[in-house]
Amino acid sequence: MSDQNLETMSIDPNVDPYGYLGMVHNSDGSITRLQEPLVPVDTSNDLSHLVVTKDITINSSKNTWARIILPRELLHSTTSTSKLPLVIYFHGGGFIVATVDSPSFQGLYASIASEIPAIVVSIEYRQAPEHRLPAAYDDCMEALHWIKNKPNELLSNHADFSKCFLMGTSAGGNVVYHVGLRAAESWDNLKPLEIKGLILNQPFFGGNERTQSEVRLSNDKVLPPIISDIMWDLGLPKGADRDHEYSNPMVGIESNPNLLDQVKLLGWKMLVTGCDGDPLIDRQVDLVKVLKELDVQVEGSFTQGFYHGSEIIDPLKAKEFSLLVKELIRHF
């Protein structure tokens, strides 16, 4: 899908940012959700026939749940007894929109599951501003403990718990970073789940001071800075600004130089992806640079062109990303 297809998104985010997000901003600071934001999805290469899905409740009191996605051929094979790597996926949406069930994510799930191949478990976490950060991190940590207890036979029969990877797109990439830090500190309590890597796909980070890419792409039609600002305003703890450690990872690293020590000790590998059509790319590149200076095993994969979230819109970009992840996973 070319950039021209994005013109199907009829609301200009720079003119009507709340309308673009499918909500109304009320005078008391609250929001009213009208609909899920329209994200154009290219279905010309539908992969849904290649996978089987099953939805499972995690915590009914919080309305958190997960979708298990696995290659269809795995269930029909009469010869293969090997288990597949487990990819625990956190969806994007700036912490305030989108769900596991959003149509835009289904093609990426199917691509990851079929191309690698792998078992994918996509986690539904609570949204802000009704549930501000760290609610999403708390829910996703709870999901890791839920998964390790093997509540479903699809996981216990087909997933290799010793080859687990945390993956997320946009806000989900932010979740991977922060939940990964938590999981590294409590790795022993997560056994038999053994995390091997953290995959941050176009991760959503911010800061008070604009980066050069944010200035250059201030009128971006997908994720302009004005939209990111709203997402952080609604998602961060009340009273916090964009230099909170949840938004700006540099703040956490500067205040705690040993923050990544456990990640290094465990030998986890990190992959950070991005593209220069995304206003967030400077923050992603800077994170990779700092992680390398800290001797974290990290690889940055940054491409020319495209836009934020291209992997969930364009099937070809989804396949490219899946093959990149496959290359990382095959070393384990």
From TrEMBL:
It comes from Solanum commersonii. InterPro entries: AB_hydrolase_3, AB_hydrolase_fold, Carboxylest/Gibb_receptor. Signal peptide: none annotated. PANTHER family: ALPHA_BETA HYDROLASE FOLD-3 DOMAIN-CONTAINING PROTEIN, ARYLACETAMIDE DEACETYLASE. One of its GO terms (molecular function) is hydrolase activity. The lineage of its organism: Eukaryota, Viridiplantae, Streptophyta, Embryophyta, Tracheophyta. SUPFAM superfamilies: alpha/beta-Hydrolases. This is Alpha/beta hydrolase fold-3 domain-containing protein. Belongs to the 'GDXG' lipolytic enzyme family. It holds the Pfam family Abhydrolase_3. Residues 87-309 form the Alpha/beta hydrolase fold-3 domain.
